[in-house]
TrEMBL record:
<feature type="transmembrane region" description="Helical">
    <location>
        <begin position="184"/>
        <end position="208"/>
    </location>
</feature>
<feature type="transmembrane region" description="Helical">
    <location>
        <begin position="122"/>
        <end position="147"/>
    </location>
</feature>
<keyword id="KW-0472">Membrane</keyword>
<feature type="transmembrane region" description="Helical">
    <location>
        <begin position="159"/>
        <end position="178"/>
    </location>
</feature>
<keyword id="KW-0812">Transmembrane</keyword>
<feature type="transmembrane region" description="Helical">
    <location>
        <begin position="12"/>
        <end position="29"/>
    </location>
</feature>
<protein>
    <recommendedName>
        <fullName>DUF4386 domain-containing protein</fullName>
    </recommendedName>
</protein>
<feature type="transmembrane region" description="Helical">
    <location>
        <begin position="82"/>
        <end position="102"/>
    </location>
</feature>
<feature type="transmembrane region" description="Helical">
    <location>
        <begin position="49"/>
        <end position="70"/>
    </location>
</feature>
<keyword id="KW-1133">Transmembrane helix</keyword>
Length: 213
């Protein structure tokens, strides 16, 4: 009955962003290789929800990291590690906004106007590879949150701070593995990102339940 007694706006941002991101990911064409440009262009030309999906993703990727960055004060107060973590998440947010803005404007304009396909491919390749760097920044930020919670020795269960560290490390190494062999991304990304993504949802639940003071 007291689940949402102390409502934290950061929790709502994370939770709503996570849900929208999951929906947008399902709708998005499964593309992991920034150099498989023929497949990417074919997916773009045959995508039914390209604009709608990317608008949804832009909203999601604005809400989710904004909530994560704003929640740094609950990790540890006056802690430089938490501050650095929030900074990395803001870097990820800035990169994602640029990527998705280009995918909502430059790619449709180039792709639908019959412009040189090579230009479209170059913009797409840059955006997809940048997305990996953006996610890497997010995972570094969450790892820093886990370290800050450990340093503060606050009211968090040890498993919660430990899971932040280990799940973010797993996701970070998943990015490295994917970039070394992009075909592995179809399997590696869901397996390695799943735990840290669930951690952020659990963080939202804790915020909304008022158990993080």
């Amino acid at each position: 009955m007291n689940l949402f007694k102390k409502v934290r706006p950061e929790g709502w941002l994370i939770l709503l962003g996570a849900i929208l991101m999951l929906v947008a990911t399902i709708l998005h064409p499964p593309l992991v290789d920034p150099y498989d440009l023929q497949k990417a262009y074919h997916a773009f030309k045959h995508a039914q929800f390209w604009i709608g999906d990317h608008i949804l993703m832009l909203i999601a990727i604005s809400l989710w990291p904004a909530g994560l960055a704003a929640s740094k004060t609950y990790m540890a107060r006056n802690n430089k590690t938490a501050d650095f973590g929030a900074g990395m998440i803001f870097v990820a947010l800035a990169i994602w906004i640029l990527i998705l803005a280009s995918e909502l404007t430059i790619l449709p304009i180039l792709g639908n106007k019959g412009t040189d396909v090579k230009v479209w491919e170059a913009v797409f390749s840059f955006g997809l590879l940048s997305g990996y760097f953006a996610f890497a920044c997010s995972w570094i930020g969450i790892f820093c949150y886990g370290m800050a919670m450990k340093q503060s020795g606050g009211t968090f269960p040890k498993w919660f701070s430990a899971s932040a560290r280990w799940s973010s490390l797993l996701a970070f190494f998943g990015i490295i593995i994917t970039c070394l062999h992009f075909d592995f991304g179809y399997f590696v990304i869901p397996v390695t990102v799943g735990p840290v993504f669930l951690w952020t949802i659990w963080l939202a639940v804790l915020l909304l339940s008022g158990r993080m003071d």
